[in-house]
Amino acid sequence: MLLLGFFLGLAVGLGFWLWQQVQLNGYLEGVLQPLTSHSHKTELPLLGRLRQEMSMVKRQQQDLQLSLQTYKELLDFAPLGYLQVDEENQLLWCNQQAREMLHLQRWQAGQVRLLLELVRSYELDQLIEQTRDWQKPQVREWVFHPSRENATAMSELKSLALQASSLPLPKGQVGVFLENHQPLLDMNQQRDRSFSDLAHELRTPLTSIRLVAETLQSRLEPPFDRWVNRLMQEVDRLINLVQSWLELTQMETNSTMQLQLETVEVRSLIASVWETLEPLAKLNSLNMTYCGSENICIKADKSRMYQVFVNLLDNSIKYSPPSTTIHIEAKFITAKEFFPGDRHSQILEINIIDSGVGFSPEDLHHVFERFYRGDKARYRSPVSEGSSTTAITGSGLGLAIVRQMILAHGGDIKAMNHPETGGAWMQIQLPGVVANSSRQDYS
């Protein structure tokens, strides 16, 4: 009886152990199935296969760590700064260039601190928030002013013109690439100072040459005087170029240009400009039409605004085909469309539209840059000698000067191509409207 009980207990124990083995094998099969679905099957025991898969996962983890380290080394070697923050704007990592740009020497790899605590730049913080909220790459430029607790160290730090390009990453993280534009700005400022110094030095010899040419002009008779006349034209062009360069440099350097503000009636101002340029317009049978309200008055520097419209209408005349019309439209827009915080005052919008070839898409972003001449399609070759018309030989400074004058008045100017005429479309927006009444059209 005891022997029978012993064998019965042994059979129950063996059965329970076999049942546990079957359950364990089934569990291990379920665990290993995702790991072995993309690899060849081996006839190893389950525990051996588990050890093999764990070893493979460990090797993959090491490979990923090596790849991550390689990418970090590449970013450290890159000429751009890079930083990455988590969903709470805590700095996770940055390369050496970002450390130098943002003065992050006190931050150590592995530390988790708010970026705003390390870099007092609300522009950068706002850019990151917008990127995370909109889930779209963003670009922003600003002047970064480094901060230091020590006042002596503060005086030694230099502000930087930075451009940041951000992109959203998984799990709410954001990556930001930083470009330091300060060396380029310093180089441009040095170039402008050099050109200004050169322009100052050229004024005296050019004036002397013109005086000599004037003396010769009164003493020579035809046909020899035509060479002196040509010399006078070229000297005058150089003098105007030097004067325009000095004026533009002064306006860009002194953002608070002294304006002689007075009440200016816009329609009369445009009419007087057209009267001055009308002899040039008649050479190609060009007309001008004005559409706008009567008695539009703004607070502006009359002489500066006169120069603005002279430059713009002169360009329209030069590039308009014969027997076409230059359209000028003046209308009002609400200030909130131009200045989001202002809902009461009005903005005057003036559109000047010609029927020429317009601007190429590549030129539209550069038309207000100094010395930018743009597409050759908008340039006429010099006419033959003896012709009654003159060639278009602008200095490339006119639109740059126009833009600075408009900005000095607190306005804005845009260059576009008109969808109907295909010609150039210059749009000016000016604040400071003081009066307006009925609407009138005339041509």
Automatic annotation (TrEMBL):
Sorted UniProt keywords: Kinase, Phosphoprotein, Transferase, Two-component regulatory system
This protein's name: histidine kinase
Pfam families in the cross-refs: HATPase_c, HisKA
A GO molecular function held by the record: kinase activity
EC number: 2.7.13.3
Chain ranges of the Histidine kinase domain: 197-434
Catalytic activity: ATP + protein L-histidine = ADP + protein N-phospho-L-histidine
Primary enzyme class: transferase
InterPro entries linked to this entry: BphY/WalK/GraS-like, HATPase_C_sf, HATPase_dom, His_kinase_dom, HisK_dim/P_dom, HisK_dim/P_sf, PAS-like_dom_sf, Sig_transdc_His_kin-like_C
